[in-house]
Design brief:
The complex is a heterodimer. Chain A is mainly beta. Chain A is built from no helices and eleven strands. In chain A, strands 2, 4, 5, 9, 10 and 11 form a six-stranded mixed beta sheet that branches. In chain A, strands 1-3-8-7-6 form a five-stranded antiparallel beta sheet, with no helix packed on it. By secondary structure, chain B is mainly beta. Classes of the chains: A mainly beta, B mainly beta.
Chain lengths: 111, 115
C-alpha cells in the first residue's frame, strides 16, 4: 500500500534550538520526495524536492535528507525561529505522477 | 504575478446547495489540481487537469465536478453539498517536465462548512 508516515505528530522546541522531523514512505515506483511548510490558515509552500539520486538538499536553515534504500527522509531545522512554527508535510511522488501526502508534523517554536 | 488565487476564502452552505470554488493561476502552468484537507489526514486529491480541456479524477472525486476551459482557470463545483464535504479546499498548479509534475504552488485555500 502506498503511504507516507511522519513523526512526531507534534513537537515543541525553544527558539534557537535545532530539530529533526522524520518521514517514512512506501510508494512504488518512487520518483521524488518533497517537503512543504504550511503556516496556519495558508496553503503549503515547497521547501525541497529530492529525487532518488539525491541524499541531501538545503534551503536556508532547512536541510532535507533522503535514504532511498530505507525509504526514509528527514527535515532538519537549524537555529529555529518563531516563524518556523508551522506544519511540515512530507510528500512522495510516484513514477505515475501520483502524490502521497503525509499528515504532517506540527512544530511550535516558543521563545 | 499573483500566483494561485482562490475565492471565496470562507463559505457556509446548507445541505443540498450547490456552489463553485474558483481557482486561477497566472504562471501558465499546465497542471492544476484540487485537494481537500481534513483534520488528521493528508491532503487528498479530488480532481486534476494536465491542460485545457483535459480533466481526470483523483482519490475522492464523488460529489465534485471540474472543467478546464482555459489554462488559467480550474473551478471546482459542488453539485449538492453534504456535511461530509466540510473541509478546507486547496487548488495547486505546476509545470510538467517530461511528464513529471514539478514543484506545486498552492493557493491560500477555501474553508467550506456545510450545515
Amino acid at each position: 500500500k502506498n503511504q507516507v508516515e511522519q513523526s512526531p505528530q507534534s513537537l515543541i522546541i525553544l527558539e534557537g534550538k535545532n530539530c529533526t522531523l522524520q518521514c517514512n514512505y512506501t510508494v512504488s515506483p518512487f520518483s521524488n520526495l518533497r517537503w512543504y511548510k504550511q503556516d496556519t490558515g495558508r496553503g503549503p509552500v515547497s521547501l525541497t524536492i529530492m529525487t532518488f539520486s539525491e541524499n541531501t538538499k538545503s534551503n536556508g536553515r532547512y536541510t532535507a535528507t533522503l535514504d532511498a534504500d530505507t525509504k526514509q527522509s528527514s527535515l532538519h531545522i537549524t537555529a529555529s525561529q518563531l516563524s518556523d512554527s508551522a506544519s511540515y508535510i512530507c510528500v512522495a511522488l510516484t513514477g505515475a505522477n501520483n502524490l502521497f501526502f503525509g499528515t504532517g508534523t506540527r512544530l511550535t517554536v516558543i521563545p | 504575478n499573483a500566483g494561485v488565487t482562490q475565492t471565496p476564502k470562507f463559505q457556509v452552505l446548507k445541505t443540498g446547495q450547490s456552489m463553485t470554488l474558483q481557482c486561477a493561476q497566472d504562471m501558465n502552468h499546465e497542471y492544476m489540481s484540487w485537494y481537500r484537507q481534513d483534520p488528521g489526514m493528508g491532503l487528498r486529491l479530488i480532481h486534476y487537469s494536465v491542460g485545457a480541456g483535459i480533466t481526470d479524477q483523483g482519490e475522492v472525486p464523488n460529489g465534485y465536478n471540474v472543467s478546464r476551459s482555459t489554462t488559467e482557470d480550474f473551478p471546482l463545483r459542488l453539485l449538492s453539498a453534504a456535511p461530509s464535504q466540510t473541509s478546507v479546499y486547496f487548488c495547486a498548479s505546476s509545470y510538467r517536465t517530461s511528464g513529471r509534475v514539478n514543484e506545486q504552488y498552492f493557493g491560500p485555500g477555501t474553508r467550506l462548512t456545510v450545515t
